[in-house]
Write a structure and sequence with these properties.
Length: 330
């Protein structure tokens, strides 16, 4: 008899695919920037296995004009490939988009590209996203958040890191395309940035009541997609020694079946972590419904730069005192 641990565990991504409907060309982007793009990979592999054309995108934390990546389109977009290295090479290890393309190339992905948007404001981001959708001729865009702070409205006690999430969500929301989704993975990781997860659960409930919640998909290391994700995170962390992704590492640990205060490396030394199975679940929502809940939407809608967006959120929060912090009653 086959041992339970050896039994394959499929990742059909049923809830996610239901949200996509008949889409056959899909753009998957990291929502919060940087290593969030890693969390697109299990979904990308599941779609590609079903014959769907997949494109990958990201919001940059790096200074792309210091690399040899090609600038294209408005804002601009940068076409990051395995050869889009920094001129100072290994002295600049934090290049998640490039490391992802290197990993994809090693697994036989033909001409891997991560379309990477430099840091910008909400207004230029909207123009950039429409250009990319038209350029690639996709019929769906999915923003994938490593964490769940993308569900915060702005009035909660802790927002996590809202700037990049809001820029992506509000930018994609303006795009003329058939389907727009937000998918989050890593429930619990944003406690590191002050998010109270009772607020996350309330957001899910509100979106369910509005008919905008498609459900949850569980990623296991016993699925090809789960095993690939763990391998990607290990590969990228080795390439980015000293600036490994805490979020991606936490999700990978949960996918492996780890639990509790699991050591993830020097970056989390001294912190008490709570790795748990909920971190390995993808929660999928209609993106326009999430965007409509962002209370500071009007305040940031005209921002032109990343700094401008930050300042507008800060100014808005000073006018709207946050709600008291709540904890899960369990």
């Amino acid at each position: 008899m086959t041992a339970t641990a050896d039994r394959p565990h499929p990742f059909p991504a049923a809830a996610f695919k239901a949200g996509l409907g008949p889409a056959r060309s899909v753009l998957l982007t990291g929502c919060g920037g940087g290593c969030d793009v890693f969390s697109t990979v299990p979904l990308a592999l599941a779609l590609a296995a079903g014959g769907v054309q997949v494109h990958l995108a990201s919001y940059a934390f790096t200074y792309l004009d210091s690399t040899v990546a090609e600038a294209v389109g408005p804002a601009p977009w940068w076409k990051v490939t395995p050869t889009s290295h920094s001129p100072i090479g290994d002295f600049d290890p934090y290049q998640p988009e490039r490391h992802l393309t290197r990993w994809l190339a090693g697994r036989g992905w033909v001409d891997p590209v991560v379309w990477t948007l430099e840091r910008t404001g909400v207004t230029p981001a909207a123009t950039a996203w429409q250009w990319l959708v038209d350029h690639l001729a996709v019929d769906a865009v999915v923003a994938v958040d490593g964490g769940t702070d993308s569900l915060m409205t702005g009035i909660e006690h802790g927002l996590g890191t809202p700037t990049e999430d809001a820029t992506t969500i509000l930018g994609v929301d303006t795009v003329d395309v058939d389907r727009k989704l937000l998918t989050s993975v890593g429930f619990g990781v944003d406690a590191f940035h002050g998010v109270a997860h009772v607020d996350v659960l309330e957001a899910v409930a509100r979106l369910e009541a509005a008919g905008a919640f498609w459900g949850v998909d569980h990623l296991s290391h016993r699925s090809p997609e789960g095993a690939a994700f763990v391998d990607l995170v290990d590969f990228a962390n080795a390439a980015m020694a000293g600036c490994e992704s805490i979020v991606a590492s936490s999700v990978a640990a949960a996918v492996r079946g780890d639990f509790g205060n699991v050591p993830l490396g020097a970056r989390t030394a001294g912190s008490e972590l709570f790795i748990n199975p909920l971190m390995a679940m993808y929660w999928t929502f209609d993106l326009p419904a999430v965007a409509a809940r962002i209370a500071y939407r009007d305040a940031v809608s005209g921002s032109q730069t990343h700094r401008d967006t930050i300042e507008r959120i800060v100014a808005w929060r000073k006018q709207v005192p946050p709600a008291p912090r709540r904890n899960l009653p369990m």
